[in-house]
Amino acid sequence: MSDRDMSTDHLPESVGGAGHGTLTKDAAAVDPFQDPGLPEHRPRVTDLDPRAAKRAERQVALLFLIAIAGLVGSLFCYTLISNTAVVRITGLGTVNANNLALGLCLGFAFLALGAGAIHWARTLMTDVDLVQERHPMRSDPESTAFAVSEFKQGVADSGFTKYPLIRRSLLTAMLVLPLPAVWLLRDLGPMPKDNLRKTLWAEGQKLVNPNTKQPLKAEDITVGTLAMANPEQIYSPEQKDEFVDQLAKAAVLVVRLPQEALKGSEAQKKKQWDWSVDGIMAFSKICTHVGCPVALYEQQTHHMLCPCHQSTFDLSDDGRVIFGPAARSLPQLPIRVNENGELVAVSDFREPVGPSFWERG
To answer: Which parts of the sequence belong to the Rieske domain (predicted)?
Structure first.
């Protein structure tokens, strides 16, 4: 069929028949797609029956109350269920009971909260279709007054003031909503004021090899050697439950540097030699940025690198930061040698280990 055959010149004076209306040739040329308009408004049951509206209000309030129960239940689950407890579920295997309970409680809470909001909107909020023609955006007083009036009308249409049971239950749910987050954040750990200032290191505590559980001797540490060490007390039965927490603070790195490799001021050099044994020095293994374990040692430069964010510490210059986001030097542990030739601590760290915090000063 040619283009001429498809032109409107060959349209009849009217197109259509019974039940289809009439589309003239001129109208088809101007706007072939007619605006069908809005469908006829059909009132809902809740618009006609006050009892149905009251029933819907109670249903919405019930969903909000279920959300409250789920939020509060998550607090009890987090507190009462051990984080080491497990349950076996067919098809999933072993699942952490604490995580499962938290997920179910919070999942049902958010599901009920969302379902309540949707049910409220579909059954009780005004559903009349409104048409507003586009116009240039202006901030004149008339537009501002119109926006305020529309907002007030929207509040009235939503029934927020009309249905007090919904309003009260929703506000209560919103007040309870932040509690799980606050509860979980509160349990991240004790405040750093006391927790990071003290470790298991004390006068006479032996430096123990974490692999052999045997004390480190000065003769075992040669120039260029990097050794890990923990306090002897960490392996006592009293520390069984606190082993991981104490290890995260007390782990140290032991290196031996020649005297000619030391840098910095005379005061820094004197401190390092006073706190060392024939060039053997012990530094905290915990990065002062965010607490990652540092363990990448460059033997030639005496630099210690953190693998997380590449903070670099110069062990020959009092553990000073020379690169990366860390804000302060690696804390040094004062050590000496006992009568058996074993390395022991002189005292605890003289400054808090780990990341900087707001109460450090």
So the answer is: 249-344
**For the segment 340-358, what is each residue's pLDDT rounded down to a tens digit?**
999 999 999 988 888 876 5
Strands (E), 20-123: 23-24, 86-89, 93-96
**Does 147 share its domain with 277?**
no
Q: How many other CB atoms are there within 10 angstroms of residue 231's CB atom?
A: 25
Strand partners, 14: 24
Task: Count other C-beta atoms under 10 Å from residue 100's C-beta.
Answer: 17
CA distances from 338 to 203, 207, 220, 347 (A): 11, 11, 14, 14
57-84 tens-digit pLDDT: 999 999 999 999 999 999 999 999 988 8
pLDDT band at residue 197 using 50, 70 and 90 as cut-offs: confident
- 222 and 326 share one domain: yes
- Same domain? For 80 and 170 the reply is yes
Lowest-pLDDT range, 26-30, 109-113, 167-171, 332-336?
Answer: 26-30
Phi and psi at 313, nearest 5°, equal: -120, 135
Beta strands 252-256 and 332-333: pairing type? unpaired
> How far apart are alpha carbons 82 and 64 in whole angstroms?
28
- Cα–Cα distance, 166 to 296 (Å, whole number): 60
Residues 98 and 206 in one domain: no
Beta bridge partners of 298: 303
Provide the domain limits for residue 87: 45-128+143-186
Evaluate whether residue 350 is within a structural domain: no
- Is 179 part of any domain? yes
User: Which string of DSSP letters, residue by residue, matches 131-166?
Assistant: ----------HHHHHHHHHHHHHHHHHHTTTT-HHH
Say yes or no to pLDDT of 193 above 70. no
> Into how many domains does the chain fold?
2
Any domain includes 175: yes
Rounded Cα distance, 24 and 15, in Å: 6
Long-range contacts of 233-241 (CB under 8 A, 24+ apart): 233/200, 233/202, 233/205, 234/200, 234/208, 235/208, 239/200
Interatomic CA distance for residues 32 and 37, integer angstroms? 15
Domain check: are 263 and 180 in the same one? no
Say if residue 179 is in the same domain as residue 240: no
Residues 239 and 169 in one domain: no
